[in-house]
Design a protein that fits this description.
10 helices; two-stranded antiparallel sheet; TIM Barrel; globular; six-stranded parallel beta sheet; 2 domains
C-alpha cells in the first residue's frame, strides 16, 4: 500500500526505491506480500511484478478487489460479481500470474448481497484463477456468513493496540484455523499513545514502541500475520526485527489492559 504515491494514489515519488524495497523484502526471507488493485490504483501490483517477476516458488502474493478509487484518499465499494471478475482478471495480468494464491474481498458492499460477492470469488476459484479466498473489513456476523458460503482461509481487518474492535474476529479465526491479517497494525505511528507501559517494555527489550506493538500482535494469536506497510528499507527492517521479540505473559497483559 505504501509503495504508491501520496493518498495511496499514483506512482511513488521514487520508483527505483520502491523496487529496491520489494527486492529487499524477498531477500530477507519474507514470503507473503499483501496488495490490492486499488493501491495506486493498479500501481502497487505493477511494481510488484516489475520488481519480483519471475517470482520465487515460496512467495505468496495476496491481492484484493472490491474498491474503486475515484481520487486520492477516496475509496468506493463495488462488489458486484461483474466488477469482481473484471478486477481479478486485471490483477492476474498486472501481476503476471496464472492463479492468485489468495484473493480477498476488499470490503462488504451494502448494495450487494454478500452471497453474490462471495459467489463470484467461488466461481473464480472453480476456474482456478484463484487458489484461496479471503475476506476483509468484515464484522463477525459477516464472517460467519462468508464461512457458510465458501472455504475462507483469511480475514483482514483493522486491528492494533488502539483499535481492538475486531477482537471477536481474531478469536473466531483462532478457533477455525484462519489467518488474521491486521491492517493498520501500527495505527499510523500513534501507537505510543496507547499505554504508558509500552516505552518501559520497549526499553527492556532494546526495541522501539512500534516493534513492541507488532510483537503484541504476534503474541495475541498464532493465527495473526501482521502486514505493516512501509516505503523504506530501513523501516521495513525495523518492522521485520519485531518478529524476534518474545513478550512475557505479564508484558502482554500490561499492554492488553
Amino acid at each position: 500500500m505504501r509503495i504508491t504515491g501520496p493518498g495511496i494514489w499514483g506512482e511513488p515519488r521514487d520508483r527505483n526505491a520502491a523496487i529496491k524495497l520489494l527486492r529487499r523484502v524477498v531477500e530477507c526471507g519474507v514470503n507473503f506480500i499483501d496488495t490490492a488493485d486499488s493501491y495506486g490504483p493498479e500501481v502497487s501490483e505493477e511494481l510488484i511484478a516489475a520488481a519480483l517477476y519471475p517470482y520465487p516458488a515460496t512467495l505468496v502474493i495476496a491481492t484484493k478487489g472490491g474498491l474503486l478509487r475515484p481520487g486520492p484518499g477516496r475509496w468506493v465499494p463495488d462488489c458486484r460479481p461483474v466488477h469482481l471478475r473484471r478486477a481479478c482478471e486485471n490483477s492476474l495480468k498486472r501481476l503476471k500470474l496464472g492463479q492468485i494464491d489468495l484473493y480477498q474481498l476488499h470490503t462488504v458492499d451494502p448494495r450487494v448481497p454478500l452471497a453474490e460477492s462471495i459467489g463470484a470469488l467461488v466461481d473464480l476459484q472453480r476456474e482456478r484463477k484463484v487458489r484461496h479466498i479471503g475476506v476483509s473489513n468484515v464484522s463477525l456476523s459477516q464472517l460467519t456468513e462468508a464461512l457458510r458460503l465458501a472455504g475462507i482461509v483469511s480475514v483482514q481487518n483493522r486491528y492494533n493496540l488502539m483499535d481492538r474492535a475486531s477482537h471477536h474476529a481474531i478469536d473466531a479465526c483462532t478457533r477455525n484455523g484462519l489467518a488474521f491479517l491486521p491492517w493498520h497494525p501500527l495505527a499510523a505511528g500513534s501507537i505510543t499513545e496507547v499505554a504508558g507501559s509500552i516505552k518501559e517494555i520497549a526499553d527492556r527489550h532494546g526495541a522501539t514502541p512500534a516493534q513492541i506493538a507488532l510483537a503484541w500482535l504476534l503474541h495475541r494469536s498464532p493465527m495473526v500475520l501482521p502486514i505493516p506497510g512501509t516505503s523504506s528499507i530501513e523501516h521495513f527492517e525495523e518492522n521485520l526485527a519485531a518478529a524476534k521479540i518474545r513478550l512475557t505473559d505479564a508484558e502482554f497483559a500490561a499492554l492488553q489492559s
